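hiii, so i know i said id send this last week but things got crazy w the move. better late than never?? heres the sequnce for the chain we talked about at the cafe, plus the structure i predicted for it. fair warning i was half asleep when i ran it
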Amino acid sequence: MAEDYLVRIGKLIRDARQHRGWTQTQLADALSTSQSAVNRIERGNQNISLEMIARIGEALDSEIISLGYAGPMHLRVVGGRRLAGSIDVKTSKNACVALLCASLLNKGRTTLRRVARIEEVYRILEVLGSIGVRARWINDGNDLEIIPPAQLDLAGMDVDAARRTRSVIMFLGPLMYLEDNFRLPYAGGCDLGTRTVQPHMNALKHFGLDVTATVGVYHAIVDRDTTPQRPIVLTERGDTVTENVLLAAARHDGVTVIRNASSNYMVQDLCFFLEELGVRVEGVGTTTLTVHGLPSIERDVDYCPSEDPVEAMSLVAAAVVTESELTVRRVPIEFLEIELAVLEEMGLDNTRGPEYPADNGRTRLVDLTIRPSKLKAPIDKIHPMPFPGLNIDNVPFFAAIASTAQGSTLIHDWVYDNRAIYLTDLTRLGADVKLLDPHRVLVEGPTRWRAAEMMCPPALRPAVVVLLAMMAATGTSVLRNVYVINRGYEELAERLNSVGAQIEIFRDI
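okay and structure toks below
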């Protein structure tokens, strides 16, 4: 019981620290203690006095001293309301975590602008902090400054944080140039079924990285005499595997050719960032990348990732299902053109403004106005393809959109083992969604949405889809335990409220 009590206090302290925008090191400095002590406190592995709790509460300007167990976060949604006005798209979640991993390549200072303040970013920052990387929020918490140590402390890695994100697998590429022998915990994240990491291993072995998986841990050994002798052909055109190989190639003293590479938005952002580090990358936006690596990188760099096309699609879907007129600003249009073409075929009324550059100077943005439309089911099935096809993460939003359309829509989510199953949760809200097999659902519309109380699906995009349907349903709905949404969206409820939604955040007493 005492251990459970300490874990609960530790989680409250961690949440308060993250809300303040502090790293564990900054809190440690304020308390005149060590980062490792703060890490133990937040993990519930250290006894803590009331006096220390009061000091922490004072340092963080938080009422931790109340000792109330906050418990999981829930959302109470009053639906049936129309949205209006405009809302900005935040920077890309997937780009931000890739750039945080890429900061390990650089011995100099890395400054990332407008970083997404989301749980996935916090987990990576916790892992980085635990191995000695100094990271602090600057400019009113909008930007992130990252300074590496002279020597990483991999033995001190926060295993719990590492296991709560799949992104930690992208440490393999940078770490192989810093350590001859190291360990990484198994990756976690959304519950999307079995996803093999073998493509990562097959690609990275060309750089001399040999990985053995044991119980819960990857054991990595690096053979410095092994270098790529021919182009690396990826067996899967995946985003993270492409990023991992790019990270390895960036520090390889030579030229690396990567074929069947992903050209998706987060990969392009990583390429642009590597160019800021002095690494020349040819073929950005194509499936063949040629990387001119550097044996050592020490630069003070300043970079802003582009906006998130999946968040943009979420906001478009919010307007569609609530039958609203809403302007979604800063939409990365080149990564949403297929989705919009499908929606226009279904009858979506929308207007695009002129194109303008993102803060990275490379990605094309537009402001997109969505208007209430009478949609009909698409003629063809909805299915994802690698960029420039319909984005894998945008597929679930079409379940909610198809539920508002007249007719039958077949959605084929062939990438993940069981994500389609979570889309059947929409039936609790009145939708007609039939599961044909673990990868396919048939959606019959239009839907007369109804309010409901339910647990949040354990996968990010289906969870947001359920939230959007609740916004369309007349009455009051409750979505319980929404941590997974906070993994990928910054203050989503508050931002939707700013354009007319009525979503209340609450916790169990």
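btw Residues 65-69, 189-195 have pLDDT under 50 and may be disordered. thought thatd interest u
miss u guys!!
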